[in-house]
Amino acid sequence: MRIRPIVKKTVIGIAVLLMLMAILGLLGRLIAPHQSLREKLEASRRCRLCDLSGVDLSGADLAGTDLTGAFLPSADFKGANLAGADLTNADTRYARFDDCVLDGATWVNGHPCKAPSLGRCLTPAVQTLLETGQCPTCDLKAAILSDLDLSGDFLKGANLSRAALSGARLAGADLARADLTRAVARQADFQASHLMEADLTEADLNGSDLSGAYLRGALMVHAILTDTLMANADLRRTILQAADLSGARLNAADLSGANLKQAHLNRADLSGANLAGTNLVGADIREAIWTDAYLVDAVWTNGKKCAPGSIGRCVQ
């Protein structure tokens, strides 16, 4: 009969002990000196699958750090030391690597960065491209090619997914059937470039010049094409579903048979464009300019087909 009180006292004692341990642990954390994220990374050298988006790590010593699969969009590695670091499968879109040391690092695509890799990873494919201007079917995934002159280069079928191409000059380049999914190519020059059947799904081409570019059959679903110059571009049968073309200049572009379903065309200039047979169902056309645009057989935003005589407006 006396066993129950003893058990009760034991349980209470254990509970009190656990509470004291929790309080002491909390006090220890409060008393311990606070470490910044930079200090923690420099100390641990490990951040697999972690989220470092937008974090300022400029000048940090992260040599040998494991960043496998890390989420790094808009992170700032300017002047940082990433020599020997592992960035396999990391998301580096919009990240800054100016003057960042990448010697001996493993890049996003699993390829090694040859020395001197300063500001960009010199994988074998990147080195070949810079030296010869030809790298068809090469693996250039997440390659940092911003502000480079790649005019007329031969990149047919190359993997440029998530590549950094902002400010790059690619006029006349052959990018037919290239993979540019989620590439960041803001204010880039693609004038008269060959992009037939290229995959630009979710690519960011804000403010880029695609005048006269050959984009026939290209896949541009959810692409960001705001304020782009696309005058005289060949966009026949291009898939532009849900693409953002706000403010784009598509003067005299050929969009016949293109899919612009749910696309954003507000403020877009389609003067003189050919939209015969184009699908515009659900598209946002607020303030769009249609002067002399050919709309015969186009499927209008309301799902109805434009009748013969649809020039500059859809006749239903």
3D structure, described in words:
- The protein starts with a helix and ends in a 184-residue tail after the last helix.
- It contains three helices and no strands.
- Helix content is 15%, strand content 0%.
- By secondary structure, the protein is mostly loops.
- It has helices at 3-31, 37-44, 124-132.
- The chain has a domain at 44-122: Pectate Lyase C-like.
Short description:
With 316 residues, the protein is largely without helices or strands.
Shape: flat
The main sheet comes to:
none
Through-space gap between termini? 94 Å
The CATH superfamily title of the domain at 44-122: E3 ubiquitin-protein ligase SopA
Helix content: 10-25%
Secondary structure category: little secondary structure
SSE string: HHH
What CATH architecture of the domain at 44-122 would you give?
3 Solenoid
The count of DSSP E runs of length 2 or more, i.e. the number of strands, is 0
Radius of gyration: 27 Å
